[in-house]
Amino acid sequence: MKYIAIIGFGVVGGGITEVIEQNKAAVKRLVGDEIYVKYILDLREFPDSPYGDRVVHDVNIIADDPEISVVCETMGGVNPAFDFSMLMLKNKKSVVTSNKELVAKRGVELLSAARQAGVQYLFEASVGGGIPEIRGMRTSLAGDTVSGIDGIMNGTTNYILTRMKKDGASFDEALSEAQRLGYAEKDPTADVDGFDAQRKIMILTAVATDMMADEGDVYRETMRNITPLDMDAAARFGGTVKLLGSARIGEDSASVFVCPFFVPSDCPLSFVDDVYNGIRVMSPVTADVMFYGRGAGRMPTAGAVVADVVSVLSGIAEKERSAKWEYAPDGYITPFEENSFSYYLRIRTESPEECAEAVRLAFGGAEILQGSPEGFAELITDEINEKDARSLFPSLEGLESHIRIMK
Amino acid sequence: MKYIAIIGFGVVGGGITEVIEQNKAAVKRLVGDEIYVKYILDLREFPDSPYGDRVVHDVNIIADDPEISVVCETMGGVNPAFDFSMLMLKNKKSVVTSNKELVAKRGVELLSAARQAGVQYLFEASVGGGIPEIRGMRTSLAGDTVSGIDGIMNGTTNYILTRMKKDGASFDEALSEAQRLGYAEKDPTADVDGFDAQRKIMILTAVATDMMADEGDVYRETMRNITPLDMDAAARFGGTVKLLGSARIGEDSASVFVCPFFVPSDCPLSFVDDVYNGIRVMSPVTADVMFYGRGAGRMPTAGAVVADVVSVLSGIAEKERSAKWEYAPDGYITPFEENSFSYYLRIRTESPEECAEAVRLAFGGAEILQGSPEGFAELITDEINEKDARSLFPSLEGLESHIRIMK
């Protein structure tokens, strides 16, 4: 019997017990032994749960029990999850987590502590729920350098954008619907302002480069400003609007950013709809690989946690390239302003032709997007340095929207 | 230094040396040592290759060299690849392969020989080129039962169907273009008649169930009969035509088949176009996961072979659930006729209304597909047992096309 503990018995934590129960035979075949959830740490009691008798309120009971080899941390948040995780690692217990905030903010130290203790710190469930993109990047693209990542990694915002695209809904209408269905929180900031996607792309970039960016170096733009007119323009352009978390990775540098993009329909990400996630990994040898699936939800996320538990207990994790992250040194993460993009521009104007000419002159080239609504000029500019573009925007009278084109 | 050998220095075999060269530093970090290609077995000489001096013509030189720990078999075909692979395994060398025919036909024995010798037989590159769906199924969905697989696993036929969809080309026109571009062989039988996809879905089914089906039990249907009228009907239905390799997996049985399907546009497979592959794995916990990427090509396929080499040399493969395949016992693979499908039917008729009524009566229900060309009735039938459907087809005078709807 292999004994594990769960810290935080919420949605995902509860799912873990279910997955282990449901897949008992398969897990036993993989691990060579049964897994038994010996403790559940939570502030609450669960008198009606079949696991009620395993609930403890003192983290040291788990830390001090030599039978416990793996601890699942599904509390969320940095504190006290960080302290609890450190305590477990120092006591030579592997920790697996679904806690993206913690991995993004303190993953460097947690991985270092795990290495020092000779145990594992795994976090497949922290990005993309049940989608195995982290293990995929770490083991299956083995030896191949990752040159870029583009991900739809937030199901809430993707649901909102899908409703806007398919039903012509406004952002507010689509958000309300998402809230009604339980896909969006009452305070949707973490999702719609890109904080969630920011953490996830920081984690994936670290998986690819071993460098953890500082949050302040990762450009983040809200998707609250996307309108039905933007969605309509994206359709005429031949694509759709998606909120992407992206990384462009060079030999000694990376640019990491989260913002809405026009995604052309020849990119598979343009078809990732509703609450689904899609993570596209580019590399010179394997070319494009995309991982697609449910990026959140009780069972998929719990399933990913259990897969990590199995990977520790079967000894696979120990053999995998152990992640040695460090905080990215100054200059490694290049400023967002140094990127170049084509832009979609929508400008309210009485004289679209003149307006288009002015944009062409300013941006060094631009094509008119056909089918504009009355009273607007719409253009797709040539590629231009982000910094230059920003300095030009204030001069464009009537500019209502500017959205980058994914490349 | 870790020494490996390559058997078969063709497109993929040559790619392996390139990938190892190109990713030297990363491979060393993963394996803890450099990889050196010591021998290349081929009938030919390669005087102009930098690897020319490593070419040997006697397989025993490799088999007898105790320094060789991994052999990459990239010959293709069953003979002599099977004998060579068995020889290597018996001499305690792990074998990694891109040879789908061999894995499908003799994988059971090769895996058994590998187990007996305490070495590995890995075949990620045999399905989906650089797409890591086999490792994904084996390790990342750990503990989760696979209930179904649907894959676009043949880039050639997908290219043909994409041209038919996007350009309105006929099958023959699209095939000619694919041949001109080098995507299709002069004799396209293996691709367009589904043999290639059949082998691949047999392999993936075995990965999921440990049971290798007999080729004769895996239904296979050509896609030569798909016409522009079918593509047009699929678009009106709200989807597209794809050649799928599919498995429906129960507790003690599986149904495995390859045929063209109407794939509705709410399924991500409907957007997998051109030479790309998409493999969708369904399971109760993780729900739908799709792996997407280039399913063939020198570098992606070689990259997958090298990832397997790395997995052996780093010790990961040893810890992974070792595949223990057996030949599926009688009755495990259920006859295709026992499945039920909805059907698209196109019937040439002067009186579409009467025809529709007749189909409704015969099939127990059917909806008219709107927008049919003059002189045709088009229907989407209710779900019906395959055997019953087949017995009804001869009675439908003027029946020009029947295509199953993916579910």
Walk me through the structure.
Two copies of one chain form a homodimer. Chain A has 15 helices and 20 strands. Chain A has about 400 residues and is α/β, with parallel strands linked by helices. In chain A, the strands form four sheets. In chain A, strands 7, 9, 10, 11, 12, 13, 16, 17, 18 and 20 form a ten-stranded mixed beta sheet that branches. The longest helix of chain A has 18 residues, at about 100-115. The first copy, chain A, starts with a strand and ends with a strand. The mean pLDDT of chain A is about 95. At the A-B interface, helix 1, helix 2, helix 6, strand 13 and helix 12 of A face helix 1, helix 2, helix 6, strand 13 and helix 12 of B. Strand 13 (about 285-295) of chain A pairs antiparallel with strand 13 of chain B.
Would you kindly provide a brief summary of this structure?
In chain A, about 35% of the residues lie in helices and about 25% in strands. With about 400 residues, chain A is an alpha/beta fold.
Describe the structure using short key phrases.
37% helix, six-stranded parallel sheet, alpha/beta
How is the secondary structure organized here?
The structure is a homodimer of 407-residue chains.
Chain A: E1 2-7, H1 11-22, H2 24-31, E2 35-41, E3 55-56, H3 59-63, E4 68-73, H4 81-90, E5 94-97, H5 100-117, E6 121-122, H6 133-140, E7 148-152, H7 155-167, H8 171-180, H9 189-192, H10 195-209, E8 211-212, E9 219-220, H11 228-237, E10 239-249, E11 254-264, E12 276-283, E13 287-294, H12 298-313, H13 316-319, E14 326-327, E15 340-341, E16 343-348, H14 352-363, E17 366-368, E18 376-381, E19 384-385, H15 386-392, E20 399-405
Parallel strand pairs in A: 1-2, 1-4, 2-3, 4-5, 5-6, 8-14, 9-11, 11-20
Antiparallel strand pairs in A: 7-10, 7-12, 10-11, 12-13, 15-19, 16-18, 16-20, 17-18
